[in-house]
Amino acid sequence: MKLSTRARYGIRALLDLARNSDSGPVSLKDVARRQEISMSYLEHLIGPLVTGGLIRTVRGSKGGIVLAKPADNIKLSDAVELLEGSTAPVDCVDCPGNCQRSDNCVTRDVWIELKSAIDGVLSSITLQELVERQKAKHKPTNMFYI
What we know:
146 residues, mainly alpha, Arc Repressor Mutant, subunit A
């Protein structure tokens, strides 16, 4: 399975919100600038995330977007499912009726295991864990000048 830019950028936007929304709503323009995502593309990503209950919009002069629930309650699987749909590598995993061989197909069993493994990883990682991982990657290094 290969994630599209839709899921990758959507998760980056969620991560940006988790890191920057302590002081209130964050403007789309700021998220777009920090994440190097075009405003028009970001606007398309926000809709499903609002509809899916991961973020909410705040109107007004100090409005913008915020997480709809705490970052430790948002799993990567939630975002990927909203933005990509199923993680199944082939259609017959979710819709066995699409293939007359589904009942006896040994490779379908492998595709089911693959989907289960992907879903297991994505559902085991929260947005808060990503925030912590990001902070760990950007720890300042001690620099010594002579």
